[in-house]
Design a protein that fits this description.
elongated, 26% helix, 17 strands, alpha/beta, disordered C terminus, 9 helices, single chain, 328 residues, 6-stranded antiparallel sheet
Length: 328
């Protein structure tokens, strides 16, 4: 089959490499335009997918938007059997979706119809799911609503971070698309319609979603920290300075009666201990330990090193919801 691959970030790299490694005929790649960087904005950074395409000698298309007569004509000239889309970054119009002989497949990082939308990996951690996976679906104009062709599942660990799950699901997506194409070529693929009544939505991440409020239960604080670790980084404010928080470990969810009474009497956000394991912080119920932080303009460091440098002491209190100077 003649395949057109659509993708932009590093999440799309394993599926592209898998298709090439299995000998599929990837005739070209569509990716986002190079991004300007630096103060002058004159230097351009190619996407991770473009770098792989150039390395493999594949033609690269970089439309500002994937539409218009000229772009459609370019696609028609490729004589496509199939398009494969993963984290491309634009919604495709119906004319583009339907152009290949077999239509367009999408690799989505959730167990559809749950968590349709832009940020399913972060959302499954934020919502406390015990399982997630990848779904290969037939793309349609409606958001992530097409028939499902293949599904792979994986459990989510109690301490799993977004970064860890992102990398795992990228590799699973690579395996899933190869398996799905094998089924299609063997005539054994079966399309399963999604149950729209069971659908949920994973919205695009905005900065406020990463703000930590220690008046929340420890389970919720832990989820927020893990959902944005390593990027963009959950954050909270202590002594007027905002820091990003990483390496959350749930010490107590509020049900452990053995936790020392002074901790229970402390206001939410109170630092109760500082050692090599990190900062132990009281939550609305229970407590968590934060192993690493990143102050504004600096590299990620251990919480102990930051506390020593900033003079953070036991009894200091994070400021839930407060505005601050020096936010990351």
């Amino acid at each position: 089959m003649r395949i057109l691959f659509w993708g932009t970030p590093d999440f799309a790299v394993p599926p592209l490499r898998a298709l090439l490694g299995e000998g599929h005929d990837v005739v070209a790649v569509v990716t986002q335009p190079d991004k300007p960087r630096g103060r002058s904005r004159t230097q351009l950074d190619p996407s991770p997918v473009k770098l792989v395409a150039l390395e493999e000698g594949l033609p690269v298309l970089q439309p500002i938007k994937p539409r218009g007569e000229e772009f459609i004509a370019e696609l028609n000239a490729l004589d496509l059997d199939l398009s494969v889309v993963v984290a491309y970054g634009h919604i495709l119009p119906k004319a583009v979706i339907d152009l290949p002989r077999l239509g367009t497949l999408n690799i989505h990082a959730s167990l559809l119809p749950v968590l349709r939308g832009a940020a399913p990996i972060q959302a499954c951690i934020l919502e406390g799911h015990s399982e997630t996976g990848v779904t290969i679906m037939q793309m349609v104009p409606a958001l992530d609503a097409g028939d499902m062709l293949h599904v792979l599942r994986t459990p989510i660990g109690a301490d799993t971070t977004y970064g860890e799950l992102h990398d795992q699901l990228a590799e699973m997506g690579a395996l899933a698309i190869v398996q799905a194409l094998t089924l299609i070529e063997a005539g054994a693929s079966r399309a399963v319609p999604q149950d729209d009544a069971l659908s949920t939505y994973a919205p695009k991440i905005d900065r406020d979603m990463a703000r930590v409020d220690f008046s929340w239960p420890a389970t919720q604080v832990s989820r927020v920290v893990r959902a944005f670790d390593p990027r963009p980084g959950a954050f909270a404010t202590l002594a007027g300075i905002t820091v990003k928080l990483f390496g959350a470990r749930l010490l107590d969810d509020g049900r452990d009666t053995s936790l020392d009474e002074p901790l229970r009497e402390s206001p939410p956000g109170t630092v109760r201990s500082i050692d090599e394991q990190g900062l132990l912080v009281r939550c609305g119920s229970g407590a968590i330990r934060i192993s690493d932080v990143q102050p504004s303009g600096k590299a990620r460091m251990t919480a102990l090193a930051w506390a020593r440098g900033r003079g953070v002491q036991i009894g200091d209190q994070f400021e839930p919801g407060a505005t601050s100077r020096g936010e990351p």
